[in-house]
Design goal:
single chain; about 40% helix; alpha/beta; binds benzoic acid
Amino acid sequence: MKIQQMRNEALKNEMNITWNAEKYTSDFSFVHQYGNYVAELIDAAPGSFVLDLGCGNGALTKVLQDKGYRVIGMDASGELLDVARKNHPAIEFVQGDAANFVLPEPVDVVFSNAVFHWIEKEKQPDMIKCVYNTLKKNGQFVFEFGGYNNNRIIHSALANVFQEHGFCYKIPFYFPTIGEYASLLESAGFQVKYAVLFDRLTELKGENGMEEWINMFVKRPFTVIRSEHEKAEIINRTVEELRRDLFINGKWYADYVRIRMKAVRS
Ligand code: BEZ
């Protein structure tokens, strides 16, 4: 690997965002499968223009197109956009930062699934402002992401094992309550029409499902651990600690909590 490439990888780990696009698409397909339910909250005429914010591999952008909308997908990850463009060559995908973007034309709907927990709390107002500015008057903002106490059991186990090894564990995601997020939306000028916070125990693929989930999604906390051996030990211990609660009838589950909302631009 070239030095610049190595620096980029280290920076992405620091931000807790690296994507193995192929593995994400093959082993974590539940992410976009559940997104179908979120898309049902959109109430717009065929031909309406919809932005899929944080479109990832484009699977849900395609679902939105199949519903009869004119669509555009935006994502920060070049790796995921490569997959999206390859799988859906007839759809327009653009690279962009959800907290700092401008589209050349306003949209009727901004849709987003399983993305906003990746955006730091401090950047959420900027992201919501970008969404507001890109929507037409009365435009809809429909989304779901990880809500308050999402993966509480997994992160508690990681925190315990990190502590045993002398490290501090900080959850690298933003999981708000409905009250907190509704306030942010209202401060930006949105009217909240629908909000729900619910548990969704989600099956993981394969007998190493939990280990793979941790390896795929929890990057930043491990950047302080220099030894690969110690990292593997921490993951193994965490998986063993989680077995009692999240290995059920021979299958691994993640203790997801979703926040799902619909807001309208005034
Ligand atoms: C989520 O969809 O809630 C999620 C996925 C990966 C990491 C954190 C949260």
